[in-house]
Amino acid sequence: MAPSAVSGGSSLPSGFAVFITFPDLLFIFEFIFGGLVWILVASSHVPIPLVQGWVMFVSVFCFIATTALLFLYVIGAHGSRTFWINLDAAYHCIASLFYFGASVLEALVTIRMQDGYTYKQYHENISAVVFSYVVTLLYVIHAVFSLIRWKSS
User: Fold this and answer.
1) CA distances for 146 relative to 14, 90, 95, 143, angstroms
2) 99-113 in b/e burial notation, b at 16+ Cβ within 10 A?
3) Are 91 and 65 in contact (CB under 8 A)?
4) Taking phi first (over 0 means left), then psi (-120 to 50 degrees means alpha), and beta for anything else, what does residue 22 get?
5) Whole-angstrom Cα distance, residue 39 to residue 138?
6) What's the burial of 74, exposed, middle or buried (CB within 10 Å: 0-12/13-18/19+)?
7) Contact partners, residue 125, CB within 8 Å, separation at least 6
8) What pTM did the predictor assign?
9) How many CA atoms lie within 13 A of 95 on its CB side?
10) Cα Dmax for the chain
């Protein structure tokens, strides 16, 4: 790990240090699993369109925002200003809440669709729920460590 991650430093990494410092390393996993949730929800059959719309909004919004933040961190656009630390903490807290709500709704709809749907549709929704909770956990962990960085800045 990079020295700033181990010692609890309060600066944001830039360049390829983003890929080796914690919690910014989680951007990669949020990107991968968030994209997977987006694909699974888009291909699954959800009997309540409003729920599918919300889950799609959350997954697409967080995927695009995570990609943008990752790109901006890699090119060093933050310039080690404290505003970016605040933005990072706020974004990950909001993304955590959004993903948690989307995961709960997706799980509720999946539980209710046990009867009357094909085996494949049901298991696609189960996969979407599982990966949605994985992404929620990633965002929560990132939010906690971003708040620690924010507190120490």
Assistant:
1) 15, 9, 12, 5
2) bbebbebbbebbeeb
3) yes
4) beta
5) 18
6) middle
7) 44, 45, 46, 106, 109, 110, 113
8) 0.83
9) 31
10) 55
Take residue 46 and report the two structure tokens written for it: 């959800």
What number of other Cβ atoms are within 10 A of residue 1's Cβ? 10
One pLDDT digit (tens) per residue for the chain, 153 residues: 443 444 345 577 767 777 777 877 788 888 899 889 889 888 887 778 888 889 899 999 999 999 998 888 888 777 767 788 888 899 999 999 999 999 999 888 888 876 667 777 788 888 889 999 999 999 999 999 989 988 887
If you search the block for the tokens 């209710």, which residue do you land on?
Answer: 112
Instruction: Give the pLDDT confidence of 54-94 residue by residue, as tens digits.
Output: 989 999 999 999 999 888 888 877 776 778 888 889 999 99
Residue 7's SS3 state is coil
- Picking from 8, 12, 39, 47, the residue whose alpha carbon sits closest to that of residue 27 is 12
Contact 135, 142 (CB under 8 A): no
- H or E element at residue 148: helix 119-152
∠ at Cα 104 (87, 64), nearest 5°? 35
